Amino acid sequence: MANYMKHIKPIDLNEGTLRLLNLGETIVISATDGKETDAMAAAWCCNLDMNPTKLTVVLDKTHKTREILERQPKGEFIIQIPNVKTAPVAFALGSVSAHDDPDKLEHCGAKFFDPEGLGRPFLKGCNAWIVCRLIPEPQNQKKYDLFIGEAVAAWADDRVFDGRHWHFRKAGRAWRTIHYVQGGRFYMIGRGFDL
Amino acid sequence: MANYMKHIKPIDLNEGTLRLLNLGETIVISATDGKETDAMAAAWCCNLDMNPTKLTVVLDKTHKTREILERQPKGEFIIQIPNVKTAPVAFALGSVSAHDDPDKLEHCGAKFFDPEGLGRPFLKGCNAWIVCRLIPEPQNQKKYDLFIGEAVAAWADDRVFDGRHWHFRKAGRAWRTIHYVQGGRFYMIGRGFDL
């Protein structure tokens, strides 16, 4: 096992995965067809269901990630949760189109790893990764750019998410989730509280 | 004009409204048919489009708010953005069903105002309010509990959102948006940063 993988642990697909996305953070979505790989940031990603975890993500027609996802037979994509440390990479991935810059991933500083050797592009330096299969809903995709995925595997860095709970205070500011407003402006997640 | 309304200002339906929901915060949705009013918290609400602003919200079949919304001819509902100060009301509205407790709103401490005298139930003490009309998509509603709305009016408290920008640092902790995890656990939004 690569040293990089020491803290990256598979997590429960139901409650654990649900809690990952509940904060409403900005995500990075990646997809590959084996030949081409792309990744883009998306602020519009949301839980849809639990047991099994389903989610929605809005993907504009201009992005190559969407094109790859739509032509890829398995309909597989990865939702990863970046953090303050990875925010510049995420923001760059959301600002540049692979249609305009064929070397987009390199120019954005995006590096990937493949925890299971299945050829899945996991963006390095994130808090968590959710592997999804597209549930095809052609009308939603065409009319609203709205894609529905079902989680088939999920992983998290145990320094910030232990499979059940976030540990932002212990992990430090670099690990806080990012929440995009517009034009380069973000907020990071803040203090936890219980009611 | 009631003194309560002094800081509550209409905001631009496009960019302004978009920025309200981009943080991925937990919201409260309310609906009325003139006879019955209900409100519930929802962590699964997300922007869907801009110009005009559209959004998605997941509403479980067990909630009376959904029942009212579905039978109400205008398909009107209000998405409001609670804050740390209003979090106990939001959490209670998400925990109790009006089917079990007919006096739910009173027991949850939910108080409403009506800025234009149109009978719309705006929950007091929130950061912002987005009035939406349902875009009926019966298949999404039935299969995924997924509702699509288009914003027709929006208001914000200018002590925390001036129509373009959030002012959390100036407004103080009580005004920070809330992001639900599970089981009474929330995070508040934290520091802003620019890239």
From TrEMBL, chains A, B:
Q: Which UniProt keywords apply?
A: Flavoprotein, Oxidoreductase
EC number, UniProt record: 1.-.-.-
Broad enzyme group:
oxidoreductase
Q: Which molecular function GO terms apply here?
A: oxidoreductase activity
The record's Pfam families line, in alphabetical order, gives: Flavin_Reduct
**Organism field:** Mesosutterella faecium
The protein depicted here goes by the name Flavin reductase family protein
Q: What SMART domains does this protein map onto? A: Flavin_Reduct
Read off the SUPFAM superfamilies from this record: FMN-binding split barrel (SSF50475)
Q: Where is the Flavin reductase like domain?
A: 18-168
Q: Which InterPro entries match?
A: Flavin_Rdtase-like_dom, Flavoredoxin, Split_barrel_FMN-bd
Superkingdom, taxonomy of origin: Bacteria
Q: Which cofactor does it need?
A: FMN
Which family does this protein fall into?
Answer: Belongs to the flavoredoxin family.
